[in-house]
Structures are given as C-alpha cells and as structure tokens.
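I have been asked to look over a protein record a colleague put together. Alongside the sequence sits a line of tokens, each denoting a local backbone shape. Please read both lines and tell me whether the tokens look consistent with the sequence. I do not need a full report, just your reasoning and any doubts. I have pasted the whole thing underneath without changing anything.
>
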Amino acid sequence: MAEESWSKFMDSLEKNEEYHKRYHIAVSNPLRRKILRLIAEGLSKNEICEKLNLTIPQLEYHLRFLEHGFCIRKEGDALKLTKEGEIIYYLDDEVKERRDEMKK
C-alpha cells in the first residue's frame, strides 16, 4: 500500500472524516499501540513478533491497519512512525521519557 498523506483528505468534510476514522481505528486497539511502541524503539518485525508472541501473518494484519491509519510507513524492511504514529509518545509516559533521554 502506498503511503497516503493528509493533504489527500483535507479538501472536504467527508474526506476529513474518513482520515480521522481510519486513524482512530488504528490507534484504538491496545495491541496496535504496543506495536507502535516497539516500532518507536526500533525493533524489527521479527523482534516485535517475539516480544508480543505473534506470528508474522498476525503482525502483518495489524501493520496494515497502522499503515492504513497513517501511523506507520514501510521503508524497505524497516518500519517507521509517521507524525500521526508519534501519538504513542503522548499515550505512554515511559516511552516519552525514553525519547526525551535519547534527545539529550
């Protein structure tokens, strides 16, 4: 799936609503928030599967939601948070503290 941007959804109320609906569906699932946290830590797909006791197909299922919801993008085999995916820093104080420490 090609990365979509916010600009594609801002020209009408209906499209704006679709953007927010997709985003909410992606981040409202607790397992997907855990996956976002692990992506923020730089873990690979295999490492995420190991940590969360998931199979690759199970992980890919959730990654599709996160990508469709504008939270991640794939760069080759690497997973990267988008600006929308960075919400995880504000949902989890522990991750936010680690990010702040890394900036020092």
